[in-house]
Design brief:
The chain is mainly alpha-helical. It has helices at residues 5-16, 27-36, 42-55, 60-65, 68-74, 81-99, 102-105, 110-118, 125-135, 145-153, 163-172, 178-194. It has 2 domains: 5-19 and 144-210, no CATH class; 27-135, Hypothetical protein, domain 2 (Endonuclease III, domain 1). 58% of the residues lie in helices and 0% in strands.
Length: 222
Amino acid sequence: MRGDLRRLYRKLLGRYGSQGWWPARSAFEMTVGAILTQNTAWLNVERAIGGLRRAGYLSPERMSRARAATLARLVRPAGYFNQKAARLRGWSKFLVDEWGSLARAKRRRAGELRSELLALKGIGPETADSILCYALGKPVFVVDAYTRRILSRLGWISGDEPYDDLRAWCESRLPAESGDLGEMHALLVRHAKEHCRKRPVCDGCVAARSCECAGAVVSEGG
């Protein structure tokens, strides 16, 4: 693995500006969004969160006591609603019973928190790291499909590296502050939607000069 992530960070930040991620009204709402966004588009997550908010379930205490059928009905727009309702109940009950609150959890080490998150059913590395970075302010980088797509097209990675290996590599080459790591993740998502799509739009891409993919594809509209 190779590549100048700090330089890419500066280029993306210069082009798009701060992204203000994660879009949520509270830290707990952020965690709910991280669970709901699995295998669905963000617009569907927003609809599900809106339903939970209107029904008054966007608190860990209320959600942990909710009926599974009620939660499933409210999160139906996000898909896999029975599964996601069970995961939300499990997560909120764990948060109340074991951590007490997200504010208390912030005082603990990231490694300990990550191990406990990964032990919960339905929470994988990407979801756990999203919670650590955006809800708990820990210096953790979130690796997702957009990260792999962009960095592999730049020729910096093969694209099939183990999640934890790629996460550690990114963290070692980016500023250590959680805000910077979260910003980089958000910028990569933005860039993937603007230019580094499944069918790339290379015209105007800030990374085109160093991208092995640029010039090998026909840009949309070209």
